[in-house]
Amino acid sequence: MRRFLASQAKGLVDQTRRHHHKSRLFLSPLPSLSSPPLPNPARSPLVSLSRFLSSTSDMSASDSTSSLPVTLDNINPKVLKCEYAVRGEIVNIAQKLQEDLKTNKDAYPFDEIIYCNIGNPQSLGQLPIRFFREVLALCDHTSLLDESETHGLFSTDAIDRAWKILDTIPGRATGAYSHSQGIKGLRDTIAAGIEARDGFPADPNDIFLTDGASPAVHMMMQLLLSSEKDGILCPIPQYPLYSASIALHGGSLVPYYLDEATGWGLEISDLKKQLEEARSKGITVRALVVINPGNPTGQVLGEENQRDIVNFCKQEGLVLLADEVYQENVYVPDKKFHSFKKVARSLGHGEKDFALVSFQSVSKGYYGECGKRGGYMEVTGFTSDVREQIYKMASVNLCSNISGQILASLVMSPPKPGDDSYDSYMAERDGILSSMAKRAKTLEEALNNLEGLTCNRAEGAMYLFPQIKLPQKAIEAAEAAKTAPDAFYCKRLLNATGIVVVPGSGFGQVPGTWHFRCTILPQEDKIPAIVNRLTEFHKSFMDEFRE
Amino acid sequence: MEYESLNENVKKCQYAVRGELYLRASELQKEGKKIIFTNVGNPHAMGQKPLTFPRQVVALCQAPFLLDDPNVGMLFPADAIARAKHYLSLTSGGLGAYSDSRGLPGVRKEVAEFIERRDGYPSDPELIFLTDGASKGVMQILNCVIRNERDGILVPVPQYPLYSATISLLGGSLVPYYLEESENWGLDVNNLRQSVAQARSQGISIRAMVIINPGNPTGQCLSEANLREILEFCHKEKLVLLGDEVYQQNIYQDERPFISSRKVLMEMGSPFSKEVQLVSFHTVSKGYWGECGQRGGYFEMTNIPPRSVEEIYKVASIALSPNVSAQIFMGLMVNPPKPGDISYDQFARESKGILESLRRKARIMTDGFNSCKNVVCNFTEGAMYSFPQIKLPPGAIQAAKQAGKVPDVFYCLKLLEATGISTVPGSGFGQKEGVFHLRTTILPAEEEMPEIMDSFKKFNDGFMAQYESNFGYSRM
């Protein structure tokens, strides 16, 4: 076994030599061969030489005190620690109610559950973009391209695009594992799309296609976090993928608070303060997460704010992790999405001197293709030895799903003026986005009309995050029920109306304040009923608990 | 962010399947050399065609507006249309909506029914989680089991390096148990016992055991007796058994058909059937489907406590849901066309053709390797690989040392440069000290096999002649 690991380590050295790096950077010391000599080395298995061997022999008994090995007592504690409220307790209750509704309709004051907990547009009636699905179907079943009837069922440009894509796939084999970063031709398309968006070049070799943006976030957390002494600055409130991922990878979340009073603004002075405090506690802060447009908060950052953030990261030696999955969801005329890559390049920070990872997804925008699991991260400003490690991690899972890869390339290079599908594509796109803007406004106004509720406008993304000023009586009732006050409110809301939202505590909030996150995604025709039910519920809740 | 400050676990982990040899092969390919990639079990990349029926169904799910078109019947058979409608009705919004984090209940039900038909024992859909490929499932389960570097996982050597890489990433300890090459890569329970005792004396807490059946890279199919021994062993030592059964449809001999770990466990009755914790893995990437690019898989839990299942569900929910297309592929795989269905004949013909060809190729490759100087190769009983032992002469080992390479890496690089055949050196999978192998797949097209084996033989015999010296060569 020692030879197994020796050859592993050697392999690593050889690989790095081939990439012309000083071996001192790579020779993690091999654990010493301190295991006792074995009677018959050729036949007796040797124990693994992972780190433990350097410790003196420990005669602790085997750890199986319970009769079943994987119990809650001995499951990985990081798993126990992490939480993800978007599909947490409230959703479980809702699902049970939904089951029960099937047979017990009369027991409830509502006849359907409306899931406003999760950004899952197509589950609430939003239709996919037709052009995208035409291309995907043709790539799934390529023999369609040889049939004459196909021209009657598919648009010409979809057929052309499918051919173009298939020509970048060796053997047109969409069922084969691809390059671990994703199919090269698709990365070329995505890079061109990024360049068209930003006005600055993008390198296809910087792109890693992943099964949605979330696995890419996990990869970066895994890379950056070695122990709880490593910290990641995260906005509060945040999308709980970040807190969960940091917990799973054993790191520390260093919070910075967004300012609700100023439209969820980000103050550099607060960032600095949190950073310094963390450092004083012995935490090495490795990166800053910015979600723009924000989730759950919906704010779109101003360019100047973005410049300050870039400069801050540069000064403090932090990697900027830019979650930009809502880049196509901007609803207000006074704000515009600017990618952090564009901002950094505009400031003169080049490929080599600013570490930035930008995340994009096919799940949001106007395409809402959550179930396809498509996305990518663009990794810039890292040395090649670090990038090799990212590649290595990606390679263990071989590659992301091909259909999702294709979709990511379509999202970054949709139909252009003059294309056959352009007009219908634009109509679909504009229809969805204008409807989202409308629903965002309608729900925001309705929420602001409720007693004790204030709601910042949703400048972007897909959510509203109102603050509820809960009366003391309600807070006490929650305590008695051993529930967080916002969860108490949300459960009551669910049981009275069938509407599922996520308590603010799932995202983080200033202590003593309470929020909930509600999506803007139910179809327009459902919005009046939602507003009515919510209004009625809230009134009776306040009647019950008002001072 | 500097290399030095990266997570050590990431730096330590290795995955040779797409490591040095593959990178070199890709470089050579860019320079215009014809490369035969046999480094990864990727059937469609080697010319195997996708089965027609599932592609028809998924294409219809992808573009549901087709179902409304009166002419759809001209392009798609009626049973594909019906299946597409059925699967769409199981979703909450077609392929584009997140499903339940464990996968669509309707598909999990199909998987449970498949398992029951296969094994003769009922299976609970609530304990079946669909994943983006089986690898993701393996990572999720190991993540629950490994707490720190004192947690050990028993892994066969040679093994598919997903296990070593994942254990490394998670900061655990890999505890190897050697398979016996001279006994067709058989598993001796005494080896297991010794490994465990040794590890425990070093303060390692053994938590789980991995079996890969049929084996990768070794291809052996475990006998029922062997499986019983393993399950008894896991019961006694209180280990979770991880049963990687992704190659269960790839069986090339008739003496040892595939029998699932779960079936054997159930047959053993109490207390085993109620107490041994087992997680079984399957995929759409292998078998005769070979749909690697879809990233579809599942794991099934047996005797895992409900609270632990909840935690596993919680972690799955952070990733929201597995991709829906692949879930449909999984449903179709476990519930394929039946006799009498319109598409059955074509489906059966395509499937049979692929499996019979694989069986022939397993034989061609084994025989081809065995005809080469200093090469000994066990027969590929199952899976998709050939894992010949290359008896490298001392002269070659010395030359490797001088080149700064592990001997089998040295050999494989030379093989690659001479013939364009891209393999994975045995060191990537683990092997006994001083014994060298390489792994290749049996996937190249049948008509190309004779030429490939000729090319290999020419290179190998030349290599041996070049490096052979008077004092013999590496012993087995």
Automatic annotation (TrEMBL), chain A:
EC number(s) on file: 2.6.1.2
Region Disordered: start-end pairs: 1-20
Alphabetical UniProt keywords: Aminotransferase, Pyridoxal phosphate, Transferase
Cofactors that this protein relies on: pyridoxal 5'-phosphate
Residue intervals of the Aminotransferase class I/classII large domain: 171-527
BP GO annotations: L-alanine catabolic process
Assembly information from the UniProt record: Homodimer.
Protein name: alanine transaminase
Provenance organism: Microthlaspi erraticum
Automatic annotation (TrEMBL), chain B:
Catalysed reactions, as listed in the record: glyoxylate + L-alanine = glycine + pyruvate; glycine + 2-oxoglutarate = glyoxylate + L-glutamate
InterPro entries (alphabetical): ALAT1/2-like, Aminotransferase_I/II_large, PyrdxlP-dep_Trfase, PyrdxlP-dep_Trfase_major, PyrdxlP-dep_Trfase_small
Transferase among keywords: yes
GO molecular function terms noted in the UniProt entry: alanine-glyoxylate transaminase activity; glycine:2-oxoglutarate aminotransferase activity; L-alanine:2-oxoglutarate aminotransferase activity; pyridoxal phosphate binding
UniProt keyword Transferase, yes or no: yes
Assigned keywords, A-Z: Aminotransferase, Peroxisome, Pyridoxal phosphate, Transferase
Similarity annotation: Belongs to the class-I pyridoxal-phosphate-dependent aminotransferase family. Alanine aminotransferase subfamily.
Annotated protein name in UniProt: Aminotransferase class I/classII large domain-containing protein
